[in-house]
Amino acid sequence: MRVCIVGALTVGIALTVVAGASYAAHVTGQVGYGAPQVLGEQFIKPQSASSSSWGLWLGLLVALAILASTAFFGWRRTHTQPG
Amino acid sequence: MCPLLDGLPDAGFSRRMEQSARQRAAPWVAGVVLALLVLGPGLAPGSLLNLDLVFTPTIPVPRGVWALGPELSRRVPLGVALAWASSLFSGPFAGKLLLGGALTIAFAGAWRLLPDANLPARLGAGLLYAGSPFTLTRVAVGHWSVLAAVAVLPWALPVLLRPGDAIRRTWLWSVALGATGVTGGLFGLVLIACGLVADRGRRSAAVVAVFLVAQLPWLIPGIFTVGSAGPLSNPRHYATDVPVPLGILRLFAGGGFWRAPSQVGATGAGGALLGAALLALALLGARHLPPQWRARAAGAAVVGVVLALASGLPGVRSLFADLTSTTFGGALRDSQRLFGLFLVWMAPAAAVGATRLASQAGPALQPTIEVLPAVAGVVLAAPGLLGAGGALEPATFPSGWAQARTQVARAQGPVLALPWHEYLNLDFADHRRVLNPVPDYFGGDVLASSNPEFADSPGAREQGDPREKHVPPLLDHLDRASDSFSALGVRWVVVLHEVDWRDYAAINQDPGMERTLATPALDLYRVRGWNGPVVDDHGRHLRVDTIVQPWSNVSPSGSATWTRPGLSGWLRGTSSTRSTASGLLRLPAGRGPVWYWPGTLAIGADVVVLGGVAWAVLLGRRRETAEVDPPPLPD
User: Fold this and answer.
1) Is A68 an interface residue toward B (CB < 8 Å)?
2) pLDDT tens for each residue of A13-55
3) Does A29 touch chain B (CB under 8 A)?
4) What is the Cα–Cα distance from B488 to B414, expressed in whole angstroms?
C-alpha cells in the first residue's frame, strides 16, 4: 500500500512534468462560450504568453530542488549518525 | 537544520519570542511568495482581461448592492469593496491586490490548520490548497469571489464545524464567508449543516439565525435579481469536466473546470495519478488531523466532492441539470466550485498522511517522503506560475476607449455595446476571450448581450434586462435602426473594432445616427432622436435629481417613461411602476420620489450585519479586557 502511494505520487509527478512540458509548448484550442461561429482563428491562450512556459519550468526546478535537498538531507542523516 | 522545523530551544524567553514571531510570519511570507509567483507578469501596470477576469481602470460599484439588476448580483458584497479600492488606487491594482491577498490568506489558512505538524506537512498543506489547479484556474478566469471564499474557508472551518461552541465566533466567520458572496455562503451552509448534525442540533436555532442573517448581504440582492433573469443557458455546459475514469481522479488533483481550455494544470494521466495518490494520502492522514474538526470536515468534504461530481457524472448529471435549471437551483451551477470543501480537507490530510507514511520508512527516505505533498503541490501549480497559464498578462485599453467614455460622461444616457456578444476575443488583449468589458469600462447603464452563445441555447439571456431581447432583430437592418434605438432609450452606440464588427457597418448609412468618434479601436455613435431620460406622455422632459441609484426625485407629472430598464420593484411615491413594451420603466402619474424598494432591504441588511460585526468585536474586546484585568476578589 505504502509503496503504491509513493509510486503513484512519483509517477504522477513525472508524468505531469512531461505533460506540462508539452502543454507549455502548444496553444490550446478554443471551443464555445462566446462567438465561436463567426470567427476565424480563436484561442484562449495567446501565442505571446511565453510566461506560462517559464513558470512551468520554474515550478519544476523548485520541485526538483526540494526533492534533491531532502534526498541529500536523508542521505546525510544516515551517514552522520553515530555507530 | 531549519529552525522552523525544530522544537523551541530552551535558550531564554527572548529567543523563544523571536522564533515564535518567525513561526507566525513563515506562512505569510511563503504565501506572499506563492502569490507573487502566480501573479508574475500580471503585476506590471495594465488591465487584466481573460474570460471573466475584467479589471478595468475603474471598476463600477455593482448595482447588486441595491439589489438592483439587470445583471445577476454575483459581485456583492465583496465587489463593493473592490470598486471603492479601484477608485482609491486603480481597478487593475485593486484587482491584483485582491487576487494576491486571497492566495496569501488561503496559503496561511491551510498552513494554520495543522498547528502541531512539522514544516514539510504545513508547507505541503499550504501548497496543495492555495497552489491547487482548482484555485489557480479560478484566478486565471477571474472568479475572484470564488477565490475569496477559498481564502476564508480554512480560517472559518474549525469554528463553523462546531457552530454551537461560540455563537459570537460563528457569527463573525459566517459574515466573513458571506462577504465573499454566494460561493462563500454555500461553503458556510455545508460547514454549519455538518457541524449541527455532529452536535445533534445543539443551539441550532441560534446558529441558523446568525448564519442566515450573515448571508443577507448577498442573499437579498440575489433573490431580487435572479427572478428577472431571462432563460438561462443549458446547465450542462457548466458541468464539471469529469470523463470517467481519469477525469474523476483529475478532479482530486484540482482539475475538472467546466471550460476545459481554461483549466490550469491537473491535466493528462499525470494529473489523474497525482489525484489518486493525494486521495490515498489524505485517507491515510485523515485520522491524524486535529480531533476537534477532522470527522466533521470529512463529512463536509464528502458533500463538496459529491456535489462537484454530480453535475458531470453520467447517471446523475441529468437530474442535477434539472435542479440547476430552476431559478434558485441555478446557484449550484458550475458545481465544481464546491470542490473547495473537499480541498480544504484533502490538503492538510494528505500532508499529514505523508508524515505518517514517512515515519514508517527508513531514515534516509523519511525527509523525501515527507515533502512529497509539497513537491506534488509545486508540480501541480507549475503551469499556473508566472501568470496563471498566460492569463495574467496586462493589457492596455486603446486611447479611443477613454475618449468615448469622456463623451458619454458629458451627456449621460444608456449605451448599447456592439458587437452583440457577451464574450468576444479582444485584439488588444492578445485575442483572449473576454467578457465584454464595455459595461465595466463605461459604467452606468450599458445594454450588452448576456447570451453566452451556446449552440443549444440560442435565446439565452443570463441577465434580467427587459430591453435585451429587442436588440438582436435590430441588428439585421442597422441602416434604419435609429428610431428603434430611440424607442429602446439608447442614447449612445459603441462599436468595438473587434471580431465581426464589420457586419455592423450599415449603421453608418442611418441618418438618425451621428458618428461622434472614430478611432482604430472603436466608433461611437449618438442617437439623434434620443428622448430622455424621463419624458411624459405629452413629450415634456421631466426634471430628475438622482440622489443614489435607487432613489431619484422626479417632477410631478402625468404618466411618463424613463429610459432605464423596467424592472419590478420601482415605485413612484407608493404607486407601482410598469414596463413599456420595449422594456423601459413606465412611471404612473403622480408625485414623490421614484425609488426601488428592495434597495432599502438590501441596505438594511448591510447595516444589520455591519452593526452585528461591530457589536461582536466590541464584545470580544470586553471579554479580553476582563480576562487580562480580573475583577478584585471579594474580601
Assistant:
1) no
2) 877 777 665 444 333 333 335 434 344 334 334 444 456 678 8
3) yes
4) 9
